[in-house]
Amino acid sequence: MTPPPEDPNIKLREHSYDGIQEYDQRLPNWWLYTLYGAIAFWIVYWFIAIQAGSVQPDGQRVQAEMTRIAAVKMASSIDVSNDAKFWEMSKNPLFVDAGRQTFNSLCVACHLPSLRGKSETPTAVGPDLTDTAWLHGGTPKEIYHTVSGGVLAKGMPAWEPVVGQKKTAELVAYILSHHHEGETITVQASN
Ligand code: HEC
What we know:
- This protein is 52% helix and 8% strand.
- The chain is mostly helical.
- It has two domains: 11-51, no CATH class; 81-187, Cytochrome Bc1 Complex, Chain D, domain 2 (Orthogonal Bundle).
- Strands 1-2 form a two-stranded antiparallel ribbon. The chain has a two-stranded parallel sheet with strand order 3-4.
- Bound molecules: heme C.
- Heme C binds at residues 103, 106-107, 109-111, 125-127, 129, 134-136, 143, 146-147, 151, 154-157, 159, 171, 175, 190.
């Protein structure tokens, strides 16, 4: 143990363990302010980040990043003959969102923003894309085929030449997001 300093203001505590004694001093100000500052910071941070939700939790950030990576991968390996891949795209929020944007600018005039076309407004030009009755087939491949090549004689334009393959696939993903895999499909001939 260091011998007690000469200064009479510096006290020693009563107890002694193995001959070791503690000084009994006030903690230095810089130390106390760091502690108080950390407590104040924690309270402010807790309100702003956790309570108000302005900082995204790590779990959500990771999830968002995985979704983004999955969307990039899907976009770079579009296989229009693979129904399973289309269903996968229809479950990726980014892919579906991109489809929604294109749909809202190019398709709503005839199919309406709800996609329900004639079912919602009988005077609408396009048929309902949310029901399970299809004119040209309701499997992902068939829907892709219709959107891509259109039904020119009936007033449905061909979209792939206009927007390209990626956006066409996004549109199909958006339509499929209103359906679920394995639902019973009926095909009624166009009149
Ligand atoms: C100018 C009006 C018009 C626009 C714009 C339009 N469609 Fe259509 N769409 C139609 C019509 C009409 C039909 C029905 C064709 C028929 O009777 O065979 C149709 C049919 C479809 C079908 C097939 C439905 C079925 O039951 O088989 C799909 C899928 C479709 N449209 C998607 C789209 C998408 C996606 C867009 C936007 C990129 C779009 N349409 C834009 C008029 C339109």
